[in-house]
Design goal:
5% of the residues lie in helices and 49% in strands. With 261 residues, it is mainly beta. Strands 6, 8, 9, 12, 13 and 16 form a six-stranded mixed sheet that branches. Strands 14-22-21-17-18 form a five-stranded mixed sheet, with no helix packed on it. It is rod-shaped and about 100 Å long.
Length: 261
């Protein structure tokens, strides 16, 4: 065994995939593991074998000295390629999430998909596939629903370690009215008035009321246009706008007429 014999460094032959490394290549190789020829004693033991195993790159290395040969394969944990951290898809469409390996040992590599830290299994709605060469895994979410929004994670594992990425999936739900304000309202002066304006969507919409006569914000509480006691000056055209930044805004207008006593 090389590890238990003192061998002159000059007697050691490095081969990479069967090809002998030149002196300069050997020096470069050793520099990768923070060793140079000048740092090696003339009769060093093969302690460097343990160091070589810690190389970050994948090597198939044959080392021989005095007729003895040791083959070393240095592998590493998977590293997943960076990708978009947030995806937006409309409701009813299909989402595709990809988990691709940028480096690492593919032999024995496994993938696991999770949604909000709960493991997913392949089904009619969650379709998980793995490339024949094992270099990526794809998750397809079919016929997206609002509750499909969440944090999806891919975990890649091999015998040397694991890596994980997380992707936020937002399912965009088209804005629609839950309560759309009436177009024309007549109220007697001094009476209270509450006009609801409620929309639904994903992301959740924000509702605002504006008086169009002078473009000033109207008095509102939550999603309601609210008057404790209307006056003649409150007559005018009001607009409710629901917006979520993802879909076209919803607009509804109310023409308020305040009647005399």
């Amino acid at each position: 065994s090389l590890a238990h014999n003192h061998i002159a460094f000059s007697d050691i032959v490095f081969k990479y995939y069967g090809y002998s490394l030149t002196s300069s290549s050997r020096r470069l190789f050793l520099e990768l593991v923070f060793i140079t020829d000048s740092q090696c004693s003339s009769t060093m033991s093969c302690m460097w074998l343990a160091v070589l195993i810690s190389i970050v790159l994948v090597y198939n290395l044959a080392i021989s000295a005095n007729g003895a040969e040791v083959n070393i394969t240095v592998s590493k944990a998977p590293r997943i390629l960076d990708q978009s951290e947030k995806l937006n898809y409309p409701e009813g469409t299909n989402a595709t999430l990809m988990c691709s390996i940028g480096s690492g040992e593919l032999d024995g590599l496994t993938y696991e998909w999770l949604k909000d830290d709960k493991r997913l299994v392949s089904s009619t709605r969650y379709r998980i596939s793995i490339a024949p060469e094992n270099f990526n895994s794809i998750l397809r979410v079919i016929d997206l629903k609002p509750d499909d929004s969440g944090i999806y994670s891919c975990v890649a594992r091999n015998a040397f370690g694991k890596d994980r990425i997380s992707i936020k999936l937002q399912v965009k739900v088209q804005l629609k009215w839950i309560v759309e304000p009436d177009g024309n309202l007549q109220v007697k002066v001094g009476k209270p008035l509450h006009v609801p304006c409620i929309a639904d969507g994903q992301p959740a919409p924000r509702t605002t009321w504006t008086r169009l006569n002078d473009s000033t914000p109207a008095r509102m509480l939550g999603y309601e246009l609210r008057f404790n006691a209307v006056s003649q000056e409150d007559s005018g055209l009001y607009e409710c706008r629901a917006t979520n930044g993802a879909e076209e805004d919803l607009l509804a207008r109310v023409n308020l007429t305040v009647l005399g006593k």
